[in-house]
Amino acid sequence: MCGSRDLAEELVQETYVKVLARPRFLRRDDDLGYLVKALRNVWYSHLRDERTRRATTDPREQVPDELAARSAEGDPESSLEATEVLDAVAELARPYREAVAAVDVAGLSYAEAAQALGVRQGTIMSRVYRGREQVARAVGAG
Q1: Ranges of the chain whose pLDDT falls below 70
Q2: What is the DSSP letter of 57?
Q3: Do the beta carbons of residue 51 and residue 90 sit within 8 Å?
Q4: How many CB atoms neighbour CB 99 within 10 A?
Q5: Helical residues (DSSP H) of the chain, grouped into ranges
Q6: pLDDT reported for residue 29
Q7: How far is CA 90 from CA 17, 47, 71, 94, in A?
Q8: Angle at which helices 76-90 and 31-56 pack, to 10 degrees?
């Protein structure tokens, strides 16, 4: 979902660094949920940083590193589409964004996402469906 294997690996590594930097005690046996939330927060921070960087620079002067890396790997049109989709996901209301990120970005099952986010599985299914609809409309695919 982030469009680049290198970026995905970087986000996972950054998540590990943040998690291991301070010891935490888990109250429940929910290691996976905790890590998903931490990864989600790192991902959102990355998206915010990208949005801020884009807003402060002239897009004609500087191509974002992530987009340039994806363009070098493959089709530039696919890279542009992936960027549009990620921007649309970032603009979703929080409940939809969290559900879509857990299922489509982190690759969790509906049950795992429900447990990680503390809601029922049916709620996750509904939020993912509605979130995907909103993303499709935002990118002009629906």
Answers
A1: 1-3, 25-30, 55-80, 141-142
A2: S
A3: yes
A4: 27
A5: 5-21, 31-56, 65-73, 76-90, 94-100, 110-117, 121-138
A6: 67
A7: 23, 7, 21, 9
A8: 110
Q: What is the pLDDT of residue 120?
A: 93
Q: How far apart are CA 49 and CA 63, in angstroms?
A: 14
- The greatest distance separating any two alpha carbons of the chain, rounded to the nearest whole angstrom, comes to 49
> Structure tokens of 78?
């696919």
Nearest to 114 by CA among 98, 134, 92: 98
Number of Cβ within a 10 Å radius of residue 15: 19
Q: What is the pTM of this model?
A: 0.49
pLDDT of residue 96: 92
Given the structure tokens 């929910």, which residue do they identify?
30
Sign of CA dihedral 13, 14, 20, 26: negative
Assess contact for 110 and 124: CB atoms under 8 A.
Answer: yes
Give me the pLDDT at residue 60, please: 44
- C-alpha distances out from residue 33 to 24, 25, 133, Å: 14, 13, 25
Can you tell me which residue has the tokens 């002239």? 58
Choose among 42, 46, 43, 40: nearest CA to 17.
42
